[in-house]
Amino acid sequence: MKVADFVERYAVNRKNTDSIKWDAMESGFGSNDLVPMWIADAEFKVPEAVTNALKKRIEHGVYGYSLTPSSYYDAYCKWQEERYGTELSQEWIRFGSGVVQSISTLVNVLTLPEDAVMVLEPVYHPFMHVIEENDRRLVVSNLINDGKQYKMDFDDIREKIQTNQVKLLLNCSPHNPVGRVWSNEELEQLLEICREEKVLVISDEIHHDLVIGNNKFVSAISVNDGLYRDNVVMLDAASKTFNLAALQCSHVVIANPQIRARYDRFVNKLHLPAGNLLAQVAAQAAYQEGGDWLDGLLGLIKYNFNYLKNEFAIKAPDIEVTDLEGTYLAWVDMRKVVEPSKLRNFMEKKVKVAVNYGEIFGEAGLGFIRLNLATTPENVERTVVALLEALEN
Ligand SMILES: Cc1ncc(COP(=O)(O)O)c(C=O)c1O
């Protein structure tokens, strides 16, 4: 599908629809009158098949206690296998009300208070919040930024695991905010260190459908034909891919039967949410019939990213845009053009665009901004033009 066709068919005005991205900028940015390029959801209607499936379920008119039908598992497993070669077994799959809720639950299942948990910064900020809110010790290994791309610092990871007796690593794959789709070799090296050092891994793969570059996405549970699977819990959801975040449903994939039993005991004890009828109706339809829609979205993200990258390269080469292999989030280094302490004022008062500021993802993010490209080319252009104009003035 051409970018213009995707936009014409699916773009929608979300202002005054109780959207956090559009209608809740006042509290974080001082005004609702900014171009919203922050929180990670999209300005596009879901595939028609999703709306039709939801309508059909709603017309039935009953929302009594429901089970997850085998057709759901079939659709999800087929999607994983056909698009990524990830082979799943139905018995490994559990449901949460969101990936962050699932991470928090797993931190409780897999570690004790005061245990050390590692993240690779800069990284999606709730990782750090969850660790600290649950009274675990946060251990940070910084990714290495070679100017174009970020890499894992394997020596530092091993050294800090040993020094701090790390018990659990939270990995983001593909990586928000630095846009990497980790290669098979990188994941293998990371997972091997964790196996040797007896560190369990949570692999947050919520962005795995959003691959823009040439790297093939590999799930942590299928690296080396599943060699590390027993040491990993994989999390994902249909929500980021298909714009379903408010329906609140995540997959918790646990191949290791002992870990699964511990997880089940914990979830049962707290009677935690384990799935949502309408979310599953929507996700099943998306997995069954949303492939073309997703390909259209990926084309649009690529288009938006190339525009952003080329415009800055030509007109403001000191703004450094990190290559985007995956996610729809551009990671932009503003340090050569605006002093980090003045960046917030610059973006909100001069450019008038709402972004995520890099330091929320860890100290290494200071002076960067994260821009959400799952929006119309028009909004990306407004952002780029306003930024260039503000720099000129
Ligand atoms: C890496 C990552 N994990 C989790 C989430 C949020 O997932 P959920 O809304 O299911 O908690 C996001 C949202 O941006 C994300 O980028």
UniProtKB/TrEMBL annotation:
It comes from Liquorilactobacillus cacaonum DSM 21116. It comes from the Bacteria. Its EC number is 4.4.1.13. Residues 46-386 form the Aminotransferase class I/classII large domain. InterPro entries: Aminotransferase_I/II_large, C-S_lyase_PatB-like, Class-II_PLP-Dep_Aminotrans, PyrdxlP-dep_Trfase, PyrdxlP-dep_Trfase_major, PyrdxlP-dep_Trfase_small. Pfam families: Aminotran_1_2. GO terms for molecular function: cysteine-S-conjugate beta-lyase activity; pyridoxal phosphate binding; transaminase activity. Belongs to the class-II pyridoxal-phosphate-dependent aminotransferase family. MalY/PatB cystathionine beta-lyase subfamily. Its cofactor is pyridoxal 5'-phosphate. Keywords: Aminotransferase, Lyase, Pyridoxal phosphate, Transferase. This is cysteine-S-conjugate beta-lyase.
